[in-house]
User: What shape does this take?
Amino acid sequence: MHRLPRTTPSTPRARRPAAALLALLALLAGCGGGERGAEDPFAAQRERLEQQGRALGIPDGFPGPQDTGVPLGTRLEPSGSITVTEDGRVLEGLDVDGCVSVKADDVVIRNVRIRCGGKQRAVVVEGSDRGLVVEDSEIDGLGTTEVAVGWSGYTLRRVDVHSLLDGPRLGSGVTVEDSWVHDMVRAEGFHGDALQSNGGSGIVVRGNTLVPTDTSTGDVLNAAVQLGAENDSGKLSDVLIEGNYLDGGNYAVNVRGDDGISGVVLRENVFGDGSRYGPVIGPGDKVQLAAGNRELRSQRAVELDEP
Assistant: This one.
C-alpha cells in the first residue's frame, strides 16, 4: 500500500474530502499494482533453468528446461504404473514411478512426471486415432526404455522428453509442439533419434527443440528427426517440420529414400552446427525445403544434401 505524506493543511475542512479521495485512489492503485507486480516465488529457479538452456546452446525463443515439463510449484502425488480404459479421463498432478498405457479415447495427461525404465514404450497408445494429449509433463526413460511414446493419434505439448533410446515415434495423426526432446542414449540395435517415423500421415512437428546429443558423453547419435516408410504399408506422407531448433545427429534431419515417402516439408527451422555431416539429407523428390530454413551460426540458407 502506498502511504501519503503527512501534511498540515491550512484549511483542513476544505481539504479533508479531497485528501480522503486521494487516499482511496492510492489504496486502490496500490492493490492493483500489487496484483500485477506480485513477485514470482520461483524467479530464482526459473533464472537457473534459463541459464541452463543458454549453456546448452538453445537459442532464445525455443523450448528448453525453463518452459517444458511440469511447471515449477506443481504438487505431484506419487503413483505407480497406470492403465487408462475410460474415455475422456484426465491424469493430472502425478509422479508416476512406472509407465502409462492408454486404451481409451480423448485422454489428457497434464502436469505429470513419468519415470519408466526397462520397457518398450514409456507411454503406450493402444490403437489409433485415440486423441491422446500429453502436456506440461516429463517423460524420463531412465536410460533404458526404448521409445518415449508410440505409435499414433496423440499430441505432445510442452513436454520434456529425455534419457531414452529413441524419443517419440511419429505415426499417423501425431503432433509434437513446443517440446524439448534431448539426451537420447546409445544402445546396441538402436541409432538414437529425438523423433522418428517409420510410416504414417498427417504428422506435424512444430516449435520444438530437438537435440538427440547425449550431453554426458558428447555422442551426437543419429538424427534429430529420422523419417522412413518401413511400416504403415510402406507409406509416409503429409509431414510438416516447422519452426524448430534442430541439432545433433549425423544429419539433423535424415529422410530415407523409400519409395513410399512423399510430401515432407521443412519450413523456417533453425539448425545448430553440432551435426556430424550437415543439416538435412534426403532425396530431392521427397523433401521440400521451403522458405526460412537457416543455419544458426552463419545465418546461411540450408541446402539439401542428396544421397
Notes: The radius of gyration is 25 Å.
